């Protein structure tokens, strides 16, 4: 467990050096990279450790964006709003997790997917608080330069990513992580040996939500304007899955790498193929699943193993 | 067994790597000299895709026309026009990102605004910081322009300039209209215009018996329409995008809901609305910022309105609507401003735009202090015999408002 | 009067929803695959009906004869060539694979057909029936009738034919079916083909009623989800019950609490059903 954590720390440290590159657009991409990293790492707790196919990421993200946004329009400061978002996401998702994670397989997948729909429509209809379909403007007086602003949001997102990574490493090394692995392998058996599976699953769901919520909050402040169909976009639920499949399920280093690779692909495809980028993305997903079902990490592992075999 | 699996994997990986490599091919780079690059972030995919296609048609028509004339002349030298498109997937934050990309990566000289009010507003925070003059072709909400920005200009008048004349003409020609039912898509522009309608109705003594909004992506309006029918309003006012309005109108016919006045915004200005509905589009009224029946003698590259309509028909084989015209206008205005400034310096062009006072094929163009156009009277029109007929303003009127939508 | 009208609307709409969902339900029930490409297949069917009516004037219900085999072939091949390779993989993989396929098909449709909304408008229009003040549009009645016939045919196919019984057997107990000598792979492909054929036919019928655009696929898919969970998986009668239940909830919800809450209600109902009664209105317990 030690070595992957070191790799993860090194990776994060490298990402943190990005502002040296200096370009505001590079920083924007870097901020998105950190955000995707948070998505992938958080999803990995439920999807990788626990083995439940969750599509709830977009729900957490939108929830976080709107909680922070609404609190700030009511006059809260940014740190306070983000802290409140963290706690609210953790508690809210833990409670929901206790109920939803009783379902398995497709049923859980669909319930988590519906969560996105329900939250989106609730926000849409709570016009007085959220502005509904008119969207929400988040006031943040900033007199910093273009670059200063970009660096600020980059580091805000980076810190959230670092915290997520720390949390994930802590979970995987703890009794909780062991319990989650037991549940993934055989839930009934785990239950029978006296593991409080409901509690474990509920905590896992809460932990997988809290930093995604914070990321949503930072994002909302960063873009100044959010509307329900933007932040409760089902693609936010699918992306971390693709990233994790790319990087290798269950491996924190793998999923962060997956997030970076995915972002790179997305950027390149989006930029060069205006009319057909979503189709190309679909093609990549299909190829990946058919030919590399265990992610890019497995490829390295295989080659490596063959190398040692010959030696 | 293991080896063959491995080689299959290696081949697959190679294929993916190749694919990535091919995808990552060089972006098209025109020579930086003698070209004016204008960035256009558009929602080419996602729910707003049909709108993006319209805007793109308008921009392309202008660019083709400008380049056919040898380009834009700046201080005696001709510059070709190139429009750089980026798809923001109907996702507002992505529009912000696209705008920054266009400025910092593609090094565009100027920008067209993103589609609609929400995205245009969000993206304008970026263009303002980089001080890039931006012309928004389809942003009408005054909130977009009330941010104190200096580099943002828009060619749509505020939403109430659509509903006020509409209410006035209905009141004048159909004094029996006492009750109006308003149904709005729960989305930025459709909801905003419905709220303006509610205000206009109340100000003119028309009772609003029904005001509700439907969710984006609603597949069936029959329950809501039955409810409206039971209230028997004389005026039914529905907002949404083309798909919503097609469905709502079809279901009104299905449910045999009739009213003296039925208004829909923003579908009827589009040819596909009329094509898709056939006879049931008859007598549906609407309002828009521009109409092909207008007759202006412009000083811009397109000249007369009829000239623009003819060019558009030749290129796309269809009638232009206000979205396409406004997009083309934005191009033409940049051209005028650049030629006036005699430079492609962003600040000089910005000042030329701010000072602009010119008649175009679209109508007289003059921007208010906040950057929103304030020189236009948007026309009210009605579908009569399968064609949109202007019923207001007086100057370009083609017929009278007919009552009775069956 | 309003109440009667709303109920009649809901009954008709419910049959259409059932028609949208039934292929999806079949694939989910038999293959244990959530087929996210279902919505786009419906739209493709709608384009087929629209195109043929536009250019040759063939009425949509005749197009069904062509659509069913064509889409069956598409589905059969998709399953044989692609899905079969990962059919034993976890839920996540098959789900994500169909998501990728859906991105491809949807993007292709936007590329070739443009995202503009089309509408298949019959000339002359079929009009509406008015019975005692309650109005029912004829095109919906026709679509409903065909939807019922299609579901009836499927029911017969599953119950009476050899292949159909094999499909049902695989759905009930895959391992036992294998022991009985059923070729599971080809049954999977047939079931997926049937699902695709039903999607295509649903699309042809929906073309009469809804505007057509690649962008509507997610709305169809969303309805299919809810209908399946409400009605129970893989059963013909379950889809009908789920469809009508959904339409009733939406219709009554729209009138009582407002149209913008109709979708919220239906998804809340879905989550409630998943938790309290995952087997659906008519389904058997213990089926996953």
UniProtKB/TrEMBL annotation, chain A:
It comes from the Bacteria. One of its GO terms (molecular function) is branched-chain amino acid transmembrane transporter activity. Keywords: Cell membrane, Membrane, Transmembrane, Transmembrane helix. Its main location: membrane. It is found in: Cell membrane. The keyword Cell membrane applies. The keyword Transmembrane applies. It holds the Pfam family BPD_transp_2. The chain crosses the membrane at residues 36-66, 78-101, 152-178, 199-222, 242-265, 277-296. It is a multi-pass membrane protein. PANTHER family: HIGH-AFFINITY BRANCHED-CHAIN AMINO ACID TRANSPORT PROTEIN BRAE, HIGH-AFFINITY BRANCHED-CHAIN AMINO ACID TRANSPORT SYSTEM PERMEASE. This is Branched-chain amino acid transport system permease protein. The lineage of its organism: Bacteria, Pseudomonadati, Pseudomonadota, Alphaproteobacteria, Hyphomicrobiales.
UniProtKB/TrEMBL annotation, chain B:
Signal peptide: none annotated. This is Branched-chain amino acid transport system substrate-binding protein. PANTHER family: ABC TRANSPORTER SUBSTRATE-BINDING PROTEIN, LEUCINE-SPECIFIC-BINDING PROTEIN. Keywords: Amino-acid transport, Signal, Transport. InterPro entries: BCAA_transport, Leu-bd, Peripla_BP_I. GO terms for biological process: amino acid transport. Residues 36-385 form the Leucine-binding protein domain. It comes from Enhydrobacter aerosaccus. Belongs to the leucine-binding protein family. Pfam families: Peripla_BP_6.
Automatic annotation (TrEMBL), chain C:
InterPro entries: ABC_transp_permease, BCAA_transport_permease. The keyword Transport applies. One of its GO terms (cellular component) is plasma membrane. The chain crosses the membrane at residues 6-26, 33-53, 59-78, 90-113, 133-158, 187-212, 224-249, 256-276. Its main location: membrane. The keyword Membrane applies. GO terms for molecular function: transmembrane transporter activity. It is found in: Cell membrane. GO terms for biological process: amino acid transport. It is a multi-pass membrane protein. Pfam families: BPD_transp_2. CDD domains: TM_PBP1_LivH_like. Belongs to the binding-protein-dependent transport system permease family. LivHM subfamily. This is Branched-chain amino acid transport system permease protein. It comes from Enhydrobacter aerosaccus. The lineage of its organism: Bacteria, Pseudomonadati, Pseudomonadota, Alphaproteobacteria, Hyphomicrobiales.
């Amino acid at each position: 467990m030690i070595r992957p954590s070191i790799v993860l720390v090194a990776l994060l440290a490298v990402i943190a050096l990005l502002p040296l590159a200096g370009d505001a657009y590079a920083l924007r991409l870097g901020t998105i990279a950190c955000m995707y990293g948070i998505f992938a790492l958080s999803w990995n707790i439920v999807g990788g450790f626990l083995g439940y196919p969750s599509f709830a990421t977009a729900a957490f993200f939108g929830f976080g964006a709107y909680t922070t946004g609404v609190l700030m329009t009511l006059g809260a400061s940014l740190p306070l709003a983000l802290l409140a978002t963290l706690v609210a996401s953790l508690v809210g998702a833990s409670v929901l997790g206790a109920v939803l994670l009783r379902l398995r397989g497709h049923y859980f997948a669909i319930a988590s997917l519906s969560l996105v729909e329900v939250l989106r429509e609730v926000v849409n209809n709570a016009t007085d608080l959220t502005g509904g379909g008119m969207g929400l403007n988040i006031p943040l007086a900033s007199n910093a330069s273009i670059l200063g602003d970009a660096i600020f949001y980059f580091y805000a997102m980076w810190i959230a990513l670092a915290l997520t990574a720390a949390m994930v490493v802590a979970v995987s090394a703890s009794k909780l992580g062991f319990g989650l692995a037991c549940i993934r392998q055989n839930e009934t058996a785990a239950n029978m040996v006296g593991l409080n599976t409901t509690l474990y699953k509920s905590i896992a769901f809460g932990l997988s939500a809290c930093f995604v919520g914070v990321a949503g909050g930072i994002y909302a402040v960063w873009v100044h304007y959010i509307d329900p169909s933007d932040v409760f976009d089902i693609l936010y639920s699918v992306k971390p899955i693709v990233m994790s499949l790319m990087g290798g399920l269950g491996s924190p280093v793998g999923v962060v790498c997956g997030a970076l690779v995915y972002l790179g692909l997305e950027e390149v495809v989006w930029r060069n193929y205006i009319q057909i980028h979503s189709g190309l993305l679909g093609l990549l997903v299909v190829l990946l699943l058919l030919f590399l079902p265990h992610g890019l990490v497995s490829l390295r592992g295989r080659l490596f193993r063959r190398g040692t075999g010959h030696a | 067994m293991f080896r063959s699996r491995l080689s299959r994997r290696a081949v697959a990986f190679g294929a993916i790597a190749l694919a990535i490599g091919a995808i990552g091919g060089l972006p098209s780079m025109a020579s930086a000299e003698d070209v004016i690059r204008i960035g256009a972030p558009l929602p080419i995919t996602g729910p707003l895709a049909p709108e993006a296609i319209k805007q793109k048609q308008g921009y392309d028509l202008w660019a083709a026309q400008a380049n056919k004339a040898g380009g834009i002349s700046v201080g005696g030298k001709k510059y070709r026009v190139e429009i750089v498109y980026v798809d923001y997937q109907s996702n507002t934050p992505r529009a912000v990102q696209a705008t920054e990309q266009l400025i910092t990566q593609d090094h565009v000289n100027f920008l067209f605004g993103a589609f609609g009010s929400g995205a245009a507003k969000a993206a304008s925070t970026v263009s303002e910081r980089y001080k890039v003059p931006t012309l928004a072709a389809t942003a009408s909400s005054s909130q977009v322009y009330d941010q104190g920005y200096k580099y943002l200009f828009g060619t749509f008048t505020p939403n109430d300039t659509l509903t006020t004349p509409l209410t006035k003409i209905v009141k004048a020609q159909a004094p029996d209209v006492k009750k109006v039912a308003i149904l709005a898509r729960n989305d930025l522009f459709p909801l905003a215009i419905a709220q303006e309608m509610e205000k206009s109705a109340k100000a003119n003594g028309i009772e609003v018996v029904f005001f509700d909004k439907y969710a984006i992506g609603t597949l069936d309006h029959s329950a809501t329409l039955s409810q409206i029918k039971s209230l028997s309003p004389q005026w039914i006012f529905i907002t949404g995008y083309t798909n919503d309005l097609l469905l709502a109108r079809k279901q009104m016919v299905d449910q045999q809901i009739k009213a003296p006045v039925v208004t829909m915004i923003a579908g009827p200005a589009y040819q596909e609305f009329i094509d898709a509905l056939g006879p049931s589009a008859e007598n549906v009224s609407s309002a828009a910022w521009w109409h092909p029946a207008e007759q202006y003698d412009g000083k811009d590259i397109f000249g007369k309105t009829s000239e623009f309509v003819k060019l558009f028909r030749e290129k796309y084989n269809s009638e232009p609507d206000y979205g396409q015209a406004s997009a083309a206008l934005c191009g033409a205005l940049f051209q005028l401003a650049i030629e006036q400034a005699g430079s492609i310096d962003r600040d000089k062009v910005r000042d030329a735009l701010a000072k602009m006072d010119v008649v175009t094929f679209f109508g007289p163009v003059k921007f208010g202090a906040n950057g929103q156009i304030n020189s236009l009277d948007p026309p009210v029109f009605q579908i009569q015999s399968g064609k949109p007929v202007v019923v207001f303003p007086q100057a370009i009127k083609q017929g009278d408002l007919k009552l009775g939508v069956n | 009067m309003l109440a009667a009208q709303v109920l009649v609307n809901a009954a008709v709409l419910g049959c259409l929803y059932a028609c949208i969902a039934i292929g999806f339900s079949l694939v989910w029930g038999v293959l244990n695959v959530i087929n996210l490409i279902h919505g786009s297949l419906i739209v493709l069917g709608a384009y087929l009906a629209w195109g043929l009516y536009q250019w040759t004037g063939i009425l949509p219900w005749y197009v069904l004869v062509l659509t069913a085999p064509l889409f069956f072939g598409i589905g059969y091949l998709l399953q044989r060539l692609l899905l079969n390779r990962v059919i034993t993989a976890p839920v996540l993989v098959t789900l994500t694979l169909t998501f990728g396929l859906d991105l491809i098909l949807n993007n292709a449709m936007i590329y070739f057909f443009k995202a503009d909304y089309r509408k298949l408008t019959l000339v002359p229009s079929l009009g509406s029936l008015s019975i005692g003040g309650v109005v029912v549009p004829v095109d919906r009645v026709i679509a409903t009738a065909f939807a019922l016939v299609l579901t009836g045919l499927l029911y017969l196919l599953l119950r009476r034919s050899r292949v159909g019984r094999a499909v049902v057997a695989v759905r009930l107990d895959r391992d036992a079916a294998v022991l009985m000598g059923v070729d599971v792979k080809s049954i999977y492909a047939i079931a997926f083909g049937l699902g695709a054929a039903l999607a295509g036919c649903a699309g042809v019928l929906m073309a009469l009623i809804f505007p057509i655009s690649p962008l509507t696929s997610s709305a169809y898919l969303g309805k299919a989800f809810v209908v399946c969970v409400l009605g129970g998986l893989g059963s013909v009668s379950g889809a009908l019950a789920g469809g009508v239940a959904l339409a009733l909830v939406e219709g009554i919800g729209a009138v009582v609490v407002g149209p913008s809450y109709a979708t919220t209600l239906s998804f809340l109902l879905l989550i409630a059903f998943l938790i309290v009664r995952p087997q659906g209105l008519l389904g058997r317990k213990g089926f996953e």
